[in-house]
Design brief:
The complex is a heterodimer of chains A (329) and B (459).
Chain A: E1 3-14, E2 17-28, E3 32-36, H1 43-50, E4 58-63, E5 76-79, H2 91-101, H3 109-119, H4 135-147, E6 153-157, H5 165-181, E7 184-189, H6 192-198, E8 201-206, E9 209-215, H7 216-222, E10 227-232, H8 240-243, E11 248-254, E12 257-262, H9 268-278, E13 281-286, H10 291-300, H11 307-315, H12 321-327
Parallel strand pairs in A: 3-7, 3-8, 5-6, 6-7
Antiparallel strand pairs in A: 1-2, 1-4, 8-9, 10-12, 10-13, 11-12
Chain B: H1 2-16, H2 19-42, E1 51-57, H3 64-70, H4 73-90, H5 93-98, H6 101-113, E2 118-124, H7 130-135, E3 147-153, E4 170-174, H8 180-201, H9 206-213, E5 221-224, E6 227-230, H10 233-267, H11 271-275, H12 280-312, H13 322-348, H14 352-371, H15 373-378, H16 383-388, H17 395-403, H18 411-439, H19 449-458
Parallel strand pairs in B: 1-2, 1-3
Antiparallel strand pairs in B: 3-4, 5-6
Classes of the chains: A alpha/beta (329), B alpha/beta (459).
């Protein structure tokens, strides 16, 4: 399969700070990739290098078969993290201008702009100045500007950042539609839940290094489930006995239940049997590892993370306040 | 190329199709017109009606009659008529033919001098006590025969006393807040009468001496390939200034808009959206081209106004059409050099306030030709003027000054200056592109000059 994006040994430094180190990344055509990692991990720098907005200090980049995105910009749709509009420009003029810059012109352009605006519930705003739109409407216009020319490759940098729940859902659907249309999609996020909901492949970056490059299915399959969710039959039950059981590393109360972490190599079925024997259970089940868990485990390594360290890492991977309501379910 | 033209077109239209631009374009010439038309009215401080007396102490007995006849209403009116006649005679024929300027000038004289004053000269005895005489200077009014001034002529004002090296003069005491034009009129009368008495005392005729020492104003004629034209000294001085203002105005307007729109694009974060479609170099070039057209439009509008003015006054023949070609060439060079720097500054800063620190050196450089305007015009081919016309970025301004002067530089110097200008355009674009590329995506602390240099090395 041909590659939409191919990065080989790419490094970028800003002064003394190494933003991206020796990054190898291959995104096949038609894939939906999530580039995840906490803020400051190097995601935006990587995306800007893919877009030829920044240039690497070393390494090679190929985009849609070209040596540089500059040669393929007309086939790329890009939604940057820091995005804006010409405040005084009218919405229709702005979208037509962006489409022309992307090489999409001709008599059908005006109709296409109207069609896209209607598709995102913005019919009637074509003649309005961008500054007259609400923030949510402006975000929709920005999304249209990235998609209007029907790109083969869609690069979205923190696309859900600052979006309200309705816009988040809308964008998620658009990304899925574009993917179904055949476009390759790569988007970055520091919110793992969003990546889990959308991607079929995850690339995880931390401190400028790639720490994971795996399909979502593969990640789940490989991970050793070593946490149980336990809910005692009697809410006031003492779990002191459980803590003394062999193989139990930690018992933490969370949301009315307990999360029981097991030592590496522990037989989970046996451990569950022993726990239920020690304290009568209303519910006991294997906790499915999330990408957050994966990230914490990769970053902290075999030594494991302390409770505080793990919570800090998890906090860095959670959605911003406006998107939280949407991400929760 | 198409993308650059798209950017240039948007840049041009988004600048000129705004109320601010249209208002600014029309407002400036309108203000100049208003200044010309209204200012004389605002400064219309013609002296009040004067009907008062001048007391004169004349121990020589030879000055009083002269002063009296000099300050007679009819004499003052006759002198004013002579003055108007002189203006009529000295008005350039092209303007005179229109019959406009002479009338305007005469009207201005009327306005400035006001109604002819009535100054009655009264004699005061030489031995009289001056204090009561002076006291009259703060009594009565200047309109109903009150005292305007008291002049005390020295006894040796007409004839030197024994042992005197020079003639004596006179003392003048005047009423508080007496208009200086009336004071001047009185002084002139005293001066004229005393000199006349001295000349007569020496056995000479004052009129004859005046005739001997005056010469009518001579007009020079400029000989050109196309014929002979009366030299217009005013135009010789104003033409270089006009061309330089035109150049400076167009360059600065285009450059300023370029910087402002770049800052806007950066601060509104639309720039990264644009960079998804074009390269930083394409963006910068497109913007520079767009604003270049804005500057050209400004130049065309103002130059057009100037040409209409020259044609109206039949002075267009004095202009070499090549000057307009050079104006456009030097505009393009100056705009690309200064505009590139202004685009780079716009990309480097986060808001217009931060740009001021970087604009200061550019403005200082631009002001240099203004400071050197007169020395260059007085000697357009001096070593200093020649060297300055080869030094970018002021070479364009200085060379245009020299070209519009009375003695234009040799052809080869003009083209060397253009060559140097083109090289400076390349260097400025190269430097600006580097700062532009790095600066566009950086927000936060405004950069220092050393940071900009680091960006140039880094990019």
């Amino acid at each position: 399969m041909a590659h939409a994006i191919d990065l080989r040994g790419v490094t970028k430094t800003f002064g003394a700070k190494v933003a991206v180190r020796e990054l190898d990344l291959t995104v096949p055509e038609g894939a939906l990739y999530g580039l995840i990692g906490p803020n400051g991990a190097g995601k935006t720098t990587t995306i800007r290098m893919i877009m030829s907005i920044l240039f690497p200090d070393s390494g090679a980049i190929s985009v849609l078969g070209q040596r540089s995105a500059l040669e393929a910009k007309q086939r790329i749709g890009y939604l940057p993290e820091e995005r804006g509009l010409y405040k005084k420009m009218r919405v229709g003029s702005f979208l037509r201008y962006m489409a022309r810059l992307k090489g999409y012109s001709g008599p059908g352009l005006a109709a296409r702009v109207s069609e896209w605006l209607a598709r995102l519930d913005l019919a009637g705003v074509e003649g309005m100045r961008c500054e007259g739109l609400s923030k949510g409407m402006q975000q929709k216009v920005q999304i249209i500007a990235a998609l209007i020319h029907g790109p083969d490759l869609l690069i979205l940098d923190e696309p859900f950042s600052g979006l309200d729940p309705v816009s988040t859902r809308l964008l998620r659907e658009l990304i899925q539609q574009e993917h179904r249309r055949g476009a390759t999609v790569i988007f970055s996020t520091h919110v793992m839940v969003q990546a889990e909901q959308l991607c079929d492949h995850i690339v995880m970056i931390n401190d400028g290094r790639k720490v994971l490059d795996e399909s979502l299915q593969g990640i789940r399959g490989k991970l050793d489930a070593r946490s149980l969710v336990f809910e005692p039959l009697a809410p006031s039950a003492d779990l002191g006995l459980v803590r003394t059981l062999p193989g139990v590393r930690q018992v933490v109360q969370a949301d009315g239940a307990y999360e029981i972490s097991l030592d590496e190599g522990t037989d989970v079925a046996r451990a569950m049997h022993q726990i239920v024997g020690a304290v009568p259970a209303a519910r006991v089940e294997i906790k499915r590892p999330t990408l957050e868990d994966v990230f914490v485990e990769i970053v902290t390594g075999p030594r494991g993370a302390s409770a505080v360290e793990a919570e800090e890492l998890r906090a860095s991977l959670r959605p911003d306040r406006p998107a939280r309501a949407e991400a929760a379910p | 190329m198409t993308k650059m033209l798209q950017i240039a077109l948007r840049e041009f239209l988004s600048t000129v199709a705004t109320k601010g631009f249209i208002f600014g374009m029309l407002f400036t010439p309108l203000m100049i017109g208003i200044m010309i038309a209204v200012m004389p009215l605002l400064f219309n401080d013609k002296p009040p009606k004067i009907d008062g007396e001048l007391a004169l102490v004349d121990p020589t007995g030879q000055v009083l009659d002269g002063v009296r006849s000099y300050l007679e209403r009819e004499a003052i009116a006759a002198r004013r008529d002579d003055f108007k006649q002189q203006i009529r005679e000295q008005t350039p024929p092209q303007l005179d033919r229109l019959g406009v300027t002479a009338a305007v000038a005469e009207n201005a004289v009327e306005q400035a001098l006001g109604e002819v004053p009535s100054i009655h000269v009264v004699a005061v005895d030489a031995g009289a006590d001056l204090e009561p005489e002076k006291a009259l200077l703060y009594q009565g009014t200047i309109e109903d025969g009150g005292r305007l001034a008291l002049a005390v002529v020295r006894p040796n004002a007409v004839h030197k006393a024994a042992g005197d090296e020079t003639f004596g003069t006179y003392e003048l005491f005047v009423r508080e807040k007496l208009d200086d034009r009336i004071v001047d009129e009185i002084k002139d009368g005293l001066r004229h009468s005393i000199l006349d008495a001295r000349v007569r005392g020496a056995g000479l005729d004052h009129g004859w001496i005046t005739e001997l020492t005056s010469m009518e104003r001579v007009r020079s004629t400029t000989v050109t390939v196309t014929g002979e034209l009366e030299t217009n000294e005013l135009l010789n001085l104003l033409l270089p200034a006009g061309f330089m203002i035109l150049l400076l105005l167009s360059v600065l307007m285009g450059g300023q808009y370029l910087m402002t729109t770049t800052i806007e694009e950066k601060s509104s974060r639309v720039v990264e959206v644009l960079l998804s479609a074009v390269s930083p170099m394409q963006l910068m070039t497109g913007k520079i081209l767009g604003q270049m057209c804005v500057g050209l439009l400004v130049m065309l509008v103002y130059a057009g106004m100037g040409i209409v003015g020259l044609v109206t006054f039949a002075l267009f023949g004095l202009l070499d059409l090549w000057l307009f070609a050079y104006l456009i060439i030097f505009y393009l060079i100056a705009y690309f050099v200064l505009g590139s720097f202004m685009a780079a500054i716009g990309a480097a800063v986060n808001e217009p306030r931060e740009a001021q620190a970087f604009m200061m050196p550019i403005m200082l450089v631009v002001m240099i030709p203004w400071l050197l305007w007169m020395p260059i015009l007085r000697d357009p081919n001096s070593l200093f003027a020649t060297v300055a016309s080869f030094l970018p970025p002021i070479n364009t301004f200085v060379m245009l000054l020299r070209l519009t002067s009375t003695t234009p530089p040799p052809f080869w110097q003009v083209w060397i200056s253009i060559g140097i200008g083109l090289a400076s355009v390349y260097a400025a674009l190269w430097l600006a592109a580097k700062v532009f590329r790095v600066g566009l995506l950086l927000h936060g602390k405004p950069p220092s000059f050393s940071t900009l240099i680091r960006w140039v090395r880094m990019a």
